[in-house]
Amino acid sequence: MTPPQRQRRSPQEDPPPQPAQDGKEDERPNPERLYVVAGADGNRADLDLVTLIVASVEDPPHSATPEQAALLRLCAAPLSVAELSAYLSLPFGVVTVLLTDMLAAELVQARAPIVRKALPDRSLLEAVMHGLQRL
C-alpha cells in the first residue's frame, strides 16, 4: 500500500485571508487589566486549588465588579477554585484575590474538599470478598 502524496502549494497562490481581529493585537491577557481586577493590595485568603466555593447570595450586589458577578453566577453550585479560574480564563492568583474580597463581604463561602480515607477498612473489604465468594 502506498501512502498518499502530499500536494504542495505553488508560490503563486495567495495565502488564505486572515479574519479581522476587531482591534485585538494579541490573545494573551493584559497584565495591567489583571492588576486592576485584583486590586493594589493583593491580600489573599488561604485557598487551595481544590477548595470548594459556593455563593451565599443569589444576586450580585450593585457594587460588584463584572468578575465578581460572574463568580457569583458560577458558584450557584459548589465549584473548585481551579474550575473557577479555568471558566473565567483568569490566573489562579487573580481569582484568589477576588474570592478573598468576596469572602470578607460574605458573598461566598469556602468549603474544604471532602477528604477520603487513604485505605478502606480491611474488615469491610473482607466481608465484601466473602459475600462475593458465596455467590
Description:
Helix content is 38%, strand content 7%. The protein has a 3-stranded antiparallel beta sheet. Helix 3 packs across helix 4. It has 5 helices and 3 strands. The longest helix has 13 residues, at 92-104.
Q: How much strand content do the residues show?
A: 5-15%
User: How much is the radius of gyration in Å?
Assistant: 25 Å
Number of helices: 5
Helix content class: 25-40%
Record the strand order, biggest sheet: 2-1-3
User: Describe the biggest sheet?
Assistant: 3 strands, antiparallel
Beta strands, count: 3
Calculate the terminal CA-CA distance, rounded to whole Å. 53 Å
Helix and strand pattern: HEHEHHEH
- What global shape is seen? flat
Q: From the helix content, strand content and strand pairing, which structural class follows?
A: mainly alpha
Task: Write down the overall mean pLDDT.
Answer: 77
**Low-confidence segments, ≥5 residues, pLDDT <50?**
none
Core attributes:
mainly alpha, 7% strand, flat, 135 residues
